[in-house]
Amino acid sequence: MTRVTVWNEYRHEKHSDEVAEVYPDGIHTAIADGLEEHGFDTHTATLDDPEHGLTEGVLDDTDVLTWWGHRAHDEVADHIVERVHERVLDGMGLLVLHSGHYSKIFKKLMGTTCSLKWREAGEKERLWVVEPSHPIADGLDEYVEMPEAEMYGERFDVPAPETLVFNSWFEGGEVFRSGCCYTRGSGRVFYFRPGHETYPIYYRDEIKQVLANAAEWAAPGDGPTPSFDNAEPLEEL
Amino acid sequence: MTRVTVWNEYRHEKHSDEVAEVYPDGIHTAIADGLEEHGFDTHTATLDDPEHGLTEGVLDDTDVLTWWGHRAHDEVADHIVERVHERVLDGMGLLVLHSGHYSKIFKKLMGTTCSLKWREAGEKERLWVVEPSHPIADGLDEYVEMPEAEMYGERFDVPAPETLVFNSWFEGGEVFRSGCCYTRGSGRVFYFRPGHETYPIYYRDEIKQVLANAAEWAAPGDGPTPSFDNAEPLEEL
Amino acid sequence: MTRVTVWNEYRHEKHSDEVAEVYPDGIHTAIADGLEEHGFDTHTATLDDPEHGLTEGVLDDTDVLTWWGHRAHDEVADHIVERVHERVLDGMGLLVLHSGHYSKIFKKLMGTTCSLKWREAGEKERLWVVEPSHPIADGLDEYVEMPEAEMYGERFDVPAPETLVFNSWFEGGEVFRSGCCYTRGSGRVFYFRPGHETYPIYYRDEIKQVLANAAEWAAPGDGPTPSFDNAEPLEEL
Amino acid sequence: MTRVTVWNEYRHEKHSDEVAEVYPDGIHTAIADGLEEHGFDTHTATLDDPEHGLTEGVLDDTDVLTWWGHRAHDEVADHIVERVHERVLDGMGLLVLHSGHYSKIFKKLMGTTCSLKWREAGEKERLWVVEPSHPIADGLDEYVEMPEAEMYGERFDVPAPETLVFNSWFEGGEVFRSGCCYTRGSGRVFYFRPGHETYPIYYRDEIKQVLANAAEWAAPGDGPTPSFDNAEPLEEL
């Protein structure tokens, strides 16, 4: 059974009544519940836990980590970012959600600013599936519609995704590469756009489906562990 | 000086007053004029010319071929398609425009149906630049806007582009990968979406700029010509 | 249970004692046996069967098709190639093996000549895993070694693979992109280099493992079936 | 005229007679001379210069930066790495050479360890051109051969290159992705493998050709500068 650790900054929910109303137990709880429904073994961790809840022990028991953060990216300790980075390169899957695009760990894995345009206007979004054979699109229709979403617009300053699964349309005139697959080291990384804290997006069935698909896709396999060192001498070959 | 042959089906213009009003000398003339302004040496060819205007001699003098077709794709002779295909694999650039997505040559190069959704409703389109460092985006703003366009929507059934330069937004709710780069053999292929026959799109400065950029990008270089045969015997190495 | 149809030209085995000694029941039987060991439900089909064994009924019951051919590519009927092509675009997986690089179906899917260099000298090959997190590399070491192989060398005239899983080294001085992943339509295609008819390559455990991994990877998922037609009118959106 | 700043750690040459004999004026001088022959305007900078020779002023006058380092990667100051990183994202080209794979700037741009295997045995290397239409292959034969090279072997722990131009074969049994193109932000990055300090590799005509081609390819264009901020309000669109 794939083990997912759901990480959440968990600050908006504690400081904003508007957000608390949507996610009374935190965004992490909503995400974890959705994954549980799909048969995953979940665990949650938040910024204010000791070591942000991401101890070596927790990561030892994690196949895939999901990351939601927004207003406190800078409070994530660098040594924890290093730890998570090493785990990803060693094969742990990582799902970066919505405003997590500006997290230290995502910027470190991408090598770019991960900047974008945004607008909070509760506008309509459609995530079009552009790669229907990708496992992350399993069980979906041709597009997923959000009646109200924060807009994220191009240019999204990331390396071109290895696979672009979703391409978003927004009512106000923008587009966005909303589902982006990457490989870093032996780890798989998926960026998924939806998920603003004031909209009940993580309760939607299609979103739960995508997160479950992505967790399955990002779970580590059984490939070789590369050796990085001085190779055998030439004469023995 | 880069030599561009501008190919046009040239039927709509002869049979529809509406189209003839927009392109009185044919779409090919408008495209060729735009390329001439940017310093290219152009030549035009149309479906009803002998050998569709694509004789071996013409192709000998062609660095980049542009392709516009719509209602008569089936009338393009298979042996001419083979001839163009060989030239592309040998290094000739190919710019496939708008409804050319359904041309025999594009389908042959892609290996897929090249199908898509469409709607003729004169709606607004924005082509967002998603890869600003690509030479095809030189001289552009963050997006190019068409006040009235035919809509093309995803799923666009092509292989994922090697580079996605433009991503289109449409008023009616669709998105489309509008500027797609491919390499086939030693040739470079660019698909560019805008260009319906009833809108004066090829007279627009930004569109001329994109076609000039793309022709420059697709022009053949001076790389090695691969040999495909039985290699030197093992013992001589 | 994933259903694999193993297709073989099955001519070398009938006309060459040397090949018959290595594959007395045909290459298809060896490949099918390996897949059975890994839990697949297999079926075989050969060139000389009616409709080459690839009737609509057989394809209805096929999740993944494997293709081995060499000397009789031209004898494969075009309408059967069309049929297989449509099935791939609709989601059937396709594993193209060794000299199958020159098959009609592979060339049609790639859009290029699929040419390469070759040398029959029984030289050593090492397939290095360059993407260790890819599911096709599951269960392997850092490289797979063939003590004796036919050499295939670059330039391999195919579109750049979406994922390059294996990169081959040959004793005589060449390299080759030996494990190449593609998406075409809703189907997944994997080209895998090893497999000359005079070497017992398909009996090797690592090769069976790769084919099993690839069949699993290429099996169709449950993504959306795109509609390709006139979209809903603008006014209703 | 494209302005290239050639950066060199410049330590081996000062501390090893063997290296000083090959590169008496430093590796940077040899690289800069080769670029001058191809018409570039060059400038050199080294680790022990103030600010490592990479002041804001120098970078203002730099279109493309080349980077050679090996034993003193850790001595490169983090704030200079940040400065170079920002410049690359803003459009400056970067050519990372040989042991520069372990430089701070390359690791920061890639997001991975950039590890590999190596062996110093003066063995033969062949760089096969796998993408003959790429401008970095202009003027080359099908492969470039180094009679004596340090071996670098896969797994090379980098993100899959956007374009793989060269694929190396080594006498001792390894392969390596030797010419790798990336886009990061608005900047273009090329990793090129050859170049050990004890072999006179940067004096070779084919290597000078590749570096000139790569500098031309990586030079900044005239694409749009993306804005990253709160977009226009929805109601004004």
What does this structure look like?
The structure is a homotetramer of 237-residue chains. Chain A is of the alpha/beta class and 237 residues long. Chain A has one domain (3-222): Class I glutamine amidotransferase (GATase) domain (Rossmann fold). Chain A is built from seven helices and nine strands. The first copy, chain A, has helices at residues 12-15, 17-22, 27-37, 56-60, 78-89, 104-110, 205-218, and strands at 3-8, 41-46, 64-68, 93-97, 117-129, 143-153, 163-170, 175-184, 187-192. The model of chain A has no long low-confidence stretch (mean pLDDT 96). Chains in contact: A-B, A-C, A-D, B-C, B-D, C-D. Chains A and D meet through α6, β5 and β8 of A and α6, β5 and β8 of D.
Identify the notable features of this structure and list them briefly:
homotetramer, about 240 residues, alpha/beta, Rossmann fold, 9-stranded mixed beta sheet, globular
